[in-house]
Structure formats: structure tokens, C-alpha cells
Amino acid sequence: MLLVLRVSSAPMKTVSFLSLRNLLVLSLLCGLRLPAQQQTPVRNVVLVMTDGMRWQEIFRGADETLLTPENYYNKRDVAPLKQQFLAATAEERRRKLMPFFWEHFGSTGFIFGDQDAGSTASVTNGKNFSYPGYSETLTGHPDPRIDSNDDKPNPNLTVLAWLNHTPKFKGSVAAFGAWHTIANAVNAEKCGCVDNAAYDPLVISPMPPALAVLNAVKRDSPREWDDETFDAPTFYTAAEYVKAKKPHVLYISLGETDEWAHAGNYGEYLLSANRADQYLKQLWDLLQSMPEYRDSTALIFTTDHGRGTVGKAWQTHGEKTPESKDIFIAVSAPGMNGNGVQKNVALVTQSQVAATLARFLGEDWKTAEPAAGAPLPLK
Question: By CB neighbour count within 10 A (0-12 exposed, 13-18 middle, 19+ buried), where does 299 fall?
């Protein structure tokens, strides 16, 4: 601590010892308060995405007009879901659907994409579907070469790969995805990081018993989708890896919200969104229980694309559904004071997530990748 005293323009001999002592004590006391006022530096960043989650449910909660027996398996009774998710106001409904989200991001975080509040967040790739959205999120820019969901390696360097190639974060970056294409969106060969997706087993040393069980569950469970697991095995695999290896940068991609929406199953779409919120809470509680992460971790939660709004368009997305370009982005970090939902602000884009992630760690992705969007305006 540098202490500077300017007591008087008079000669030093005219200043009493008592005055100097009082000034010194006062200055020291002020100095002792400084650490409590300083922000804890961010040492870790966690990015979580849930595929195809609409901004409408994030900010308005469950849509009663869609919560019908026709939109829930084979006309199953929706009364329990109505009790669980419906309420008189949008604020009540959204808190019922995503309680941790609103508790965690809603007071001090930054939440973009509430169009009812004058905030829009959008993709820039023009495709409005998954692989282009994941690539844009992880690289900070669209790529016209990524024009399908084909399970092919991403030709671009992602911010995850770039960080993993730095001395500071080498070997401390990990990615997990329910959809197998996530592994290629990250591109393990370029990244050199842990990159586990879908039904692939994860083997590390030493091998936690719980991780061996999760590998068996992925191997032996019936498969609803050939290239995608349910979210639970993906999430718990990532959690076990965090416990064992404590990465500085963690990426988790969940997929059920998109799958159930495509199936026209609004009831299960809501339940999957609610489970994603529970996973966020479990993950956050785990991180806060570990000294390596406690009060030094930034959290980003977003999606790869939105969905339609009119009629059955909520089930789909893509270039023919222009409103599916609209998404949400939520960010929190130690010492942040964003006051939750951003109101009447300029457009933000998916292309800004990568630079934001890097900036939390003191790194400049925009300079390394000039095509990337600038960090989000978190002020």
C-alpha cells in the first residue's frame, strides 16, 4: 500500500506529532477497508447453453395457449404442469419456470433479450439453426461455410481452443455436449482440450467411480435420439469432471429443449427448461463449495437460436422463421452490478459472447480474432 500524506504547506516542525498520528491512523483505517471494496478477480468462466430455448419463456414464462393436452405426449393431462408453471403475471411465471436464473442473474447480472423491455439479442449468422449458432457463439463470428448441422469439424479456431493454447490456461479447458456435433463445433483436434459429447465415454486418470457409472449409463440406456443423449448424463459427466480436474474454462451444451420443441411437446419442453435451471443451480452450488471457484467464477447462460411464435412455428426455427434469430444472453460475475434485465438498450449479438468470455479472464479475443464481435457492454 502506498500512503501519501500532505498535511500542510507549513514547515514540518509546525505540525504536531498528534496531528500526524491521527492522520496516519485515519489513512491506515481507510486502507484496511479497501480489500472489502475491491472486486474479486475472475479466475474461471462457465458457459452453459440450452438448445433452442425461446426468449419468450425466459422472460414471460410458460405460454398457457401452448400448454394443452395436444402439446404434451399423447394428450396427457396438463393440469399438474399448469399448477407448476402458470401464474397471473409474467414475472411470476418466469420465476416458476427458471427460479435459479432469476435469483442469480436477476438482481446483479446482465440479462439481454427481453424485447418487452426494449432489449434484443440476436444471432448474426442468418441461418437461425444449431451448428451455425454454436460456431458463432464459440468463435465470435458467423461462417457461411457452416450452412448445415452436418457433424463435421469446425474449420474455425474457437475461443476455447485459443485459451487452451495459452500458457495460463493450457490443459484447463473442457467442453461437454448432449449433441454429438458439439464435439466437432469445439473441434478437439484444434482445441487440444477435453471435448466430450453425446454417448461417448469420458475416461480420465484417476477415474472417479461416478464417472464410470455415467459412461455405463450412456452406453446401456435406450436412445431417444441417435446422436444426442438426454441432458442428465451430459450435465453430471461435466460435474464429475469439475470435481476431479477443476478446469478454469468450462463449456456445457444441453439439448432437450430443442428436441422436445421439434416434437411439438410443449409440456416436456417446459420441464426440460426447468431441469436446465436446476442444473445451473446444482453447478453453481458445486462451484461455490470449492475454494478454486468460490466467488471467482463468471457464468454465462444463452442459447444457439430462438424459435417461431405464430401457430405451430414455436416448434421450428431457421431461415424461413426470421424471428428465430432472437435469443437471450445472461451474464454474472463477482462484484457485478448489472441490475438484471437490461431495458431500452442497443442490440447485442451472439457474436459478442466469445470476446466476453475471454475478457473475464483478462484476455483479448477481439484482437486475436478481428472478425469476432466486441465484448458485451457490461457497464
Answer: buried
